[in-house]
Amino acid sequence: MLHFKLGLLSILVLVSTRTMADISDSIRNDKAVVIYEFNEASGDSFIDSSNPKYGASLNLTNYTPGNVSRGVDSNGDKYISVDVKSVIRSNSAAAKIYNECKKDTSNGLTVELVVENNESVQLRSGMYPDKVEQPLRILSYSRDFTNRTIKVNGTNTNQVNVNFAIGQFYDMGNLYLGAVTTGSNNNLFTDPLKSSTNGLLLKGVSRPASSYKQTVVLSVSKSGIARLFLSDRNGNIYQASETSQGFGGQASAFTSRWASDAYLNLANDFIADSQISTTLNRNDQFANGTCVDACADNPNRFWKGKIYRVAVYCQALAKADVFGNAYAVNRNEVIPLSQVKVNDQLLKASEIYNRLTGVKTPIYNPILQQIAAKLDSQDPIGAAALLTEHPLFYNITVKNFAAKMSNRDETINVPLNDFTATIVGATRDNLNSKTLLYENYYYQADPSKAAVPSDDVDDLLKSNNHYEALDRGDFDLKAVLVKKTPQLVFDGTSAVSNPTPAGLLTTRQWAAAHFLAGTNRRAVEFTLREFTCTPIENAADSSGPEDVIGRDIDRNPGGSMSKFTTSCRACHTVLDGFRPAYAFMTFSNNFLKHSLIVPNSTANNLNEDNSTSMGVHVDAPKVARKFNRNETTFPGGKVVRDDSWVNNANSGTNKANFGWTHTSGKGITEFGRTIAESKAFPKCMAKRVFFTVCKREANAKDDAFLTKVSEEFSSPERNYNLKYLFQRIVTNDSCLGGG
Prior knowledge:
By secondary structure, this protein is α+β, with helices and mostly antiparallel strands. It is built from 22 helices and 30 strands.
């Protein structure tokens, strides 16, 4: 039995509709305490254009000239672009915000942002809350983190350092987060469900919160209701979340712990003048996706992107104010949570939703009731099936599952590509997943459904433009992907049919990852690793034959034949036995070169041997030269003359672990089929799905379950259907319960 702790929760059920309007200029000009719309012609000062009735302007300054630029979009809207790590903050403590929000006439707080995140990788530097550099701050009303003694009402006291903030983070999907310090708050960005002392925390899903201008509104009332509103790529405003958890509706608690000497900051928390140089020189740039220096030390929450508008109100704007004129026609109906029965099944449904869509959803989402009903009727597969038709299942979960196998670093932080898209499409279409390794197809976007670059040569074979544009545009992969056949390769002039297609193994992405330079041994190593979950050291066989090993491998390394026998032979007998399957292929100049298509006489481009041809060997005129180079290292070694291969991982424990159906073959297509028809393939896919949806590696306790599931997966009834594998694994208690 699974047990879920609900905690001190007071949530409202939301049935959301979307509207095109937003906060009107008249409301903004009347009620906003500060407004920044970046209309200045130039310079590093940003003028507060709010109503003078709220006091002197609270202007902002860019303390990092050159790091922030100005621009105008196609609609004529001005913005500032935070291009690299920057320091932007008010010239003094934001006393006008503090004083106005403290007044009895204030009924709460609203923060309005119009932003564009153009650097999605910055959201993947770590999964909040496990990585403390998350969430990245778009706006922060905060004080010096190095000084834990804060002035409250003029008195020194140990208080929190952030009064309120809006940021972004990554939790299997890009999410916005709004948080407000309240009377009971100790940890601003800690989930209130984990402790009754934590303050308000609102999460809102946005797909992908990048590459388009987006409105973000956080509204918190002293009566105890907090709401987060977002807009989608079409400008439609919708309510993303709503809660009263955090201060129990006590007006006296609101702002009682705010620091009076906090500053208003953009694109980070507060950075003191003395810390600017040190902070900017820290080794924690966005692009590398890691934090080399101590992430826990503030400041390290830089955000970059475009900012069009910032406004802060010491009023909790009503929905009618946020939605504008469209509110009378399209309004969100709110139903009290008391009408929703919250039990273990509903909470389990919520967890299944998160695992399959990659994002979290409020307990009041109506689909959770449907999932719970399926669970109650002992139909867990039917419950999961409600979500395996959800667009986010494909755009996040299956995409991440596939992306991890598509690159040498085995990371999900890579752009969409033909390898990943093909797995996504095959999963959607319920294809037999074995065919992914040997049949003649791939997936790309239907040009009638996605306006992205789609030239076969320039955008699919010689670059990843097509798929990266799909990624940037946040297109619904479930809706736009189409199956294409045959697979294509570039012959130096145009796109032609691949004469030896093998599904994923002949995609551009796989070639770029594993055919670049080298000797294509890496392609064999990663084929075993990704599709049988077997590292080469586990497949190594010291009893295997030596005569398959290439001439480039020294049999007497460092003058020690025993070193070759004990350290090299076991791996190479397996790698070099399979390696000829990839004999006709290499990757250079950004495209896959096939020696049967790109002849030696074709001066298409320089390759890794610095020749102006495909580069083949005189003893093997159809084989890529790299297979037989360095032939003087051990002249008696194997010369690869064609694509015939032998399976030397077929004895002892390997025979039982892999369960092979073929001991030899010819060509990459037969090689792919051999991998797909092995006993290890379905078990490996089960392990990979388990990791994706269970958020942990399988352990010994899970082995019996995974064996059973892999047998079901490979049965004639299930026909290697990946979608079923996700449905079957995610609903198991050991997955949801964490083992």
